[in-house]
Design goal:
Helix content: 55-70%
Strand order of the largest sheet: 1-2
Largest sheet: 2 strands, antiparallel
Distance between the termini: 35 Å
Strand content: 5-15%
Shape: flat
Number of strands: 6
Radius of gyration: 25 Å
Number of helices: 13
Structural class: mainly alpha
Length: 355
């Protein structure tokens, strides 16, 4: 039958725990101690049939079970898709936290002076004027713009996801990859900012340490990044396999390979080192899209080879994750950067993640 959701009353009208239910507090945590996390244990607890949240499945009075899905996997995926709002919040939260960390880092970089050329300038040099310091801060600033732009775009897509099943599936896959990516990046950047701020960063007044602790839990809440990267990669590969199974998909694949061959055969495209070309919108988008297509095709062929060798689907997938783990991390990252690049370069919205 798979995973189902129920409403289970924990206490009776007098406020006492129902029979067979135990609860407790999880105690102090690394961060988020303002959130009161606890645990629940059930011992042979029975509830009425009406307590089943029956959006996806139902049990009739005669005990007959019905579901709109034909397999446990589909039901499980539909149940997990309800987490997309939470994952969106867990994308916006780290973005706001890293914004505050960067603000503290920029403030310190403009205020703190250190060393300098005493022969030409009696004043010490601001930290922001040192290239090693400036570049790190500008990389963080660029990511803040990227993350906030992505968050705004995903908020707009959320309304469409509730109305359309296909868009909801795409939103859930994309949100999984984005959540994993930002939650892995932001703790590292917060630690870097803390070090770059010296003693000020170590002070509680800067709040960098507090936010760094809270950012750590984002990597666990609403899904571990290792699994979420695979959710997006799996969605992309399944859709790619569907494309290959159709005549139009096969024709498109041949057309893409021919276009790539003609593009590479042109020495102006492959050998040109002009700044205007390398920094152009077309060059970056083509690089991103080419690598995404290459990764999708290579992992699809690997999966087919393992399935041809009579390996079960789950074993074949796990073997691909073990032998080619970079594929499952690179796909979401490339997709994220190419989508943001499209937005930054005056494209009105994200491209479809199947492109």
């Amino acid at each position: 039958m798979g995973v189902h959701a129920f409403v289970v009353p924990l206490r009776n009208a007098e406020g006492k725990l129902e029979q067979g239910i135990e609860i407790g507090d999880c105690g102090m945590k690394v961060g988020w101690n303002g959130v009161d996390n606890g645990w629940i244990r059930f011992h042979h607890v029975r509830i009425p049939r009406e307590n089943l949240l029956n959006r996806f499945a139902n049990v009739a009075p005669n005990g007959e079970y019905t579901s709109q899905f034909s397999s446990k996997g589909q039901l499980f995926a539909a149940t997990l898709s309800q987490l997309m709002v939470g994952r969106l919040l867990y994308f916006i939260g780290p973005s706001a936290a890293i914004h505050a960390c960067l603000k503290a880092g920029l403030y310190f970089a403009f205020q703190r002076t250190q060393f300098g050329d005493s022969k030409h300038n009696a004043r010490e040099t601001q930290l922001i004027q040192y290239p090693t310091h400036f570049v790190e801060l500008m990389k963080g600033l660029a990511f803040v713009y990227v993350f906030e732009s992505a968050g705004n775009e995903m908020c707009q897509r959320l309304f469409d996801a509730f109305k359309d099943e296909q868009k909801r599936e795409e939103f859930h896959a994309l949100m999984s990859g984005l959540k994993a990516y930002i939650c892995e990046y932001t703790p590292r950047f917060a630690s870097k900012i803390r070090v770059m701020c010296g003693g000020y960063g170590y002070s509680a007044y800067a709040r960098i340490g507090e936010m760094r602790r809270d950012l750590d839990i984002f990597q666990t809440a609403e899904g571990d990044g290792t699994v979420l990267h695979q959710q997006l990669a799996r969605y992309l590969i399944i859709n790619y396999q569907k494309e290959l199974s159709s005549y139009s998909g096969k024709f498109q694949l041949v057309q893409e390979k021919m276009n790539d061959f003609l593009y590479k055969s042109n020495p102006l495209n492959v050998r040109s080192t002009a700044v205007s070309y390398i920094c152009s919108r077309a060059f970056f988008l083509k690089c991103f899209h080419f690598q995404v297509r290459y990764l999708k095709h290579s992992i699809t062929m690997k999966l087919r080879a393992l399935r041809f060798a009579k390996l079960p689907p789950m074993t074949a997938w796990s073997n691909c994750c073990f032998f080619r783990p970079s594929v499952f991390y690179t796909l979401p990252q490339l997709l994220f950067h190419s989508s943001i690049l499209s937005s930054v370069l005056s494209i009105s919205s994200f491209p479809s993640i199947n492109n």
